[in-house]
Design a protein that fits this description.
The chain is an alpha+beta fold and 107 residues long. The chain has 4 helices and 6 strands, in the order H-H-H-E-E-E-H-E-E-E.
């Protein structure tokens, strides 16, 4: 689904990255300790976590797929304004819902 949103012209952080967006990932991996995980062609899954001090933000799932654990502080750093999901989220304002899809505003 993230790729469909991207095709509509909406900036998306978890679309398929043909080329890695190193500038973006360096914002949350300032010491570049996990660069070998995100420096690749990849599909990206995002997990929202409550731990603001999580050390392992990136996890390689398979050669073309990695997960990113983002806290609310990371969302702010990455300037995320909206979250599109099928999950119910706490702490964010739901501004749209259709079938199982929801859009939350990040405050």
């Amino acid at each position: 689904m993230p790729n469909y949103i991207l095709m509509a012209g909406v900036p998306v952080i978890n679309s398929t990255n043909t080329y890695p967006d190193m500038d973006k990932w360096h914002l949350i991996d300032t010491e570049k300790k996990q660069e070998e995980i995100y420096n690749r062609y990849a599909h990206i899954n995002i997990n929202l976590v409550k731990d603001e001090n999580i050390q392992e933000k990136f996890k390689l799932v398979q050669p073309d797929l990695f997960e990113v654990n983002l806290s609310s502080k990371d969302l702010e750093t990455l300037e995320v304004k909206y979250i599109f999901t099928v999950n119910e989220l706490e702490g964010f304002e739901k501004i749209y819902e259709y079938n199982q899809y929801k859009i939350y505003e990040v405050n």
